[in-house]
């Protein structure tokens, strides 16, 4: 009779879970092939699926061409102007000086005639303007020649180097994107879900593969209000799986600080017992660790402390 009056220990209910990771779509490309199936165990680095590479490869080729163009432009800046360009500038300066001399001589001949009113004043003015324009052309040709003789400015070389580095960085980023089109497992684990099928085109960032990872699962339970003050992180626990005899040793891994369900200010009196806190109970492998690795996710569990 005394044994029948004993109360069962307070327990928390929940489900068995594994850590989940997703492999997102690096680009909006169609799925060309899938190398795995749901439920398959894979090692880290194992191929999962392959996306179409045609467009990304073409973009990489275009970026590589732009990088080559930037590199040649930098070489041109570093080598400076060619000798032929300098000689052309000198010839242009000589022609400008000859034109200026001719315009100045014509003005010199026209001015006495203008003072004697043998020619119109407008003709003298036009000759003076032509002489001034010719002198300006000479000065412009002289400065152009000096710019070529002094060579490329160091600031221009720096700009060319920066443009080349930017193009190289874009190529490196595109190479990474192209490599990511062949999806591989980031960690060893089991394929839990393949939301898309071959031929589908998922948007960027969409989960293409969902994996269950970790050495062993853990229990995700909800601590009722009467248990919250009695359970601490690191405390030992017993986990019982529905349909499996015996209890598994475990330890409290974490407890959420925010309660679930109704907020505290909406509860009063006995309603406060409806609050619950999400907690994770890590199973401790004892002896047969492989048995824990085969436990499926989603199994109902009961945890006592």
From TrEMBL:
Cellular compartments annotated: Cell envelope
For this UniProt entry, what is the primary localization, expressed as one broad class? other
**UniProt keywords, alphabetically:** Coiled coil
User: Entry's InterPro entries?
Assistant: HH_YbhG-like, UPF0194_transport
Pfam families noted in UniProt: HH_YBHG
- What domain of life? Bacteria
Q: Where is the YbhG-like alpha-helical hairpin domain?
A: 59-178
UniProt name for this protein: HlyD family efflux transporter periplasmic adaptor subunit
